[in-house]
Amino acid sequence: MNLTIALQEVWAKQPHLILIGGFIFLIGFVSKMKLFAKANQPLAAAFIPVWDLIVIMKIIGRPAKHAWYFALPILNIFFGFKVLVQLAQSFGKRTYTDAFLACFFNVFYVLNLALSYDEEYVGPVYQDTIEPVVPVVKGVA
Predict the structure, then answer these.
(1) Which of 77, 86, 79 is nearest to 65 (CA)?
(2) 137 CB burial (10 A radius; 0-12, 13-18, 19+)
(3) For residues 50 and 77, is the Cβ–Cβ distance under 8 A?
(4) How much is the pLDDT for 135?
(5) pTM of the entire predicted model
(6) Are 114 and 34 in contact (CB under 8 A)?
(7) SS3 104
(8) pLDDT band at 131 (very low <50, low <70, confident <90, very high)
(9) Domain residue spans in the chain?
């Protein structure tokens, strides 16, 4: 079935679903733009699919190559929640309540982070837990 035909059928039977979906989609774009502005990132990145993931990785302090984790089928669900929690932590929200709200009301929580005057970007939160191995040399103090 063609996508345009399917959308026409949905529009004919239940137009409110498309309007609600479009409204939530618009809220998501506006909130991403405002969030990127608070973190001093380019606003155009909100409209380009892979670039926005790379910018979000930059905001939370992860390497840009971690954006490819979203392409892995099962890992992307876990990683998506992890990124949402770290995004909230990058704006100073570190409680379990904030983690819950960020995961389950993500579009509206990001909108709250973006539009609230009290919320400020505090910096990246991701820390690489793998420490470099320091060689041990005997007899050297």
Answers:
(1) 79
(2) exposed
(3) no
(4) 60
(5) 0.79
(6) yes
(7) helix
(8) low
(9) 7-115
